[in-house]
Amino acid sequence: MEQVVAEEELTLVTRKPYFDLPTACPLCLPVFIYLKLAHFPFRLDFNSIFPDSDQIPYVESGAYVAHNNENGGVIECLKQDGIVDLDSEFQSVPDWISTKAMISSWLADAIMYELWVGSDGRSACKIYYSDLPWPIGKVLFLKQVYIVKQRLGITKDNAKQREDEIYKRAKIAYGALSTRLGEQNFLFDDRPSSLDAAFLGHALVTLHALPETSVLRSKLLEHDNIVRCAEKLQMELIESGSSSSGPQFRSVPSSSAPRKGASNWSSKPRSKPKREKTEEEKIFKRRAKYFLAAQLVAVLLFLSVMGGNDSAGLELDDDVMLMLMRALLLIETISLLPTDLGPHY
After folding, report:
1. How many CA atoms lie within 13 A of 345 on its CB side?
2. Cis upstream peptide for 57 (omega within 30°)
3. For 59-98, how does the pLDDT look when each residue is reduced to its tens digit (9 = 90+)?
4. Which structural domain, as residue segments, surrounds residue 323?
5. pLDDT of 183 higher than 60
6. Is 315 among the domain residues?
């Protein structure tokens, strides 16, 4: 597998850049940083077609593809497949497992809570739904809020208790990581690892994407050495300019139609034979129509529900949220229908 990737350029596909970060997605940024720490050449692409897909981020090179929702995530896939592994010498190091657990559990839960529940949601909407019309983005945002609350075990009865637990664990994790980091640049033996990529990604999203009123951000700012290290590595890895091992930036187009270059334009109109659409393009167009139609149904349902509730706040009870979830489940189901269903256009 390593040989296959070596022969083809590796492409990392993430969500779009915001807040002066190459990607503001908390799952995508650590993968970007991991490849940069490894000095592994790659191209950076952005995908905003399916904003709530759990496959993003992913990497691809020729026939090789590794998605976020496979085998522990993209970084684990790259390690297991022998493509790039920064952790081979750290597995037996004391505190490796406990440090990994703090970052992947306590801090991951904290940033998830802040983006979707503990703030006004503006940062999350910008990261995930900025390319969508407001009603559709709002529906998808509320859907994700519901999913996050379920994942974190948050109910109306225990909301305050769970909030206190999440912030308490984050505070403990920041204190432990600050002590381990000291004045070094990296957590273990002053050499980069996947834990540094995960922690640096978390720190940069927390510092740049969360509002100044963020509780999590204020707890991180209590540790000067973490902030200094994050700023230093951000300068070296992200803001230092292009290099031979640096990524090339390119956005994934929203359709599969080829773009015309300047040399294709002529002052005189000319007719050319109509290109026969490939089967893949037909499937994409058909699914897109179904997807947009189902989104419209969900938006209309959302507006009707909000019209019948007190719209002073957007706190919806479980029954209303369940109804919206069913509508959005319809969207996802339709978008994944077998390609031989429905009329062909």
Report:
1. 11
2. yes
3. 999 999 999 999 999 999 999 999 999 999 888 888 999 9
4. 279-335
5. yes
6. yes
